[in-house]
Amino acid sequence: MKVSLETLPDYVGDYVFLTVYDWQKGDNAKLEQELKEAPVWRSLPVVTQNRVIQVNVNDFLPGDPISIEKQMEAQAKLLMERFKK
Fold first, then answer.
1. Which residues pair with 54 in a beta bridge?
2. C-alpha count within 13 angstroms, C-beta hemisphere, residue 29
3. pLDDT tens per residue, the chain (85 residues)?
4. CA 20 from centroid of its chain's CA atoms
5. Of 5, 10, 19, nearest to 53 (Cα)?
6. Model pTM score
7. Exposure string (b/e) for 24-54, b if CB count within 10 Å is 16 or more?
8. By the 8 A CB rule, do 78 and 53 touch?
9. Which secondary-structure segment (H or E) carries 71?
10. What Cα–Cα distance (Å) separates residue 11 from each residue in 15, 16, 26, 73, 76?
11. Within 13 Å of residue 60, how many CA atoms lie on the same side as its CB?
12. What radius of gyration do the chain's Cα atoms show?
């Protein structure tokens, strides 16, 4: 699902698992840079409080039950690592 920058504040929680993937052009780095430079993104509390966890799209793309279970385990581990800090 693509979310517009203007609606980001409606979707963001206490933590964000961020993966940027440009399905059409494949220029992930450019898309990520545009996002991170956007005033809306930079002003989000989750960003200003360093609660964004970047993940690789390839690790979270498969949607079968076994992959989803592994993804939840990976997300829990990433969150626990953040809480230790």
1. 18
2. 0
3. 667 889 989 999 999 998 887 666 667 788 889 889 999 999 999 999 999 998 887 787 778 899 899 999 999 999 999 877 6
4. 7
5. 19
6. 0.76
7. eeeeeeebbeeeeeeeebeebebbeeebbbe
8. yes
9. helix 65-84
10. 11, 10, 24, 22, 20
11. 15
12. 14
- For tokens 């799209």, the residue is 57
What is the DSSP track for 20-69? ---TTT--HHHHHHHHHHSHHHHHSHHHHTT-EEE--HHHH---SHHHHH
Provide the token pair at 26.
């494949």
67: amino acid identity, one letter:
S
Per the CB < 8 A criterion, the answer to whether 64 and 6 are in contact is no
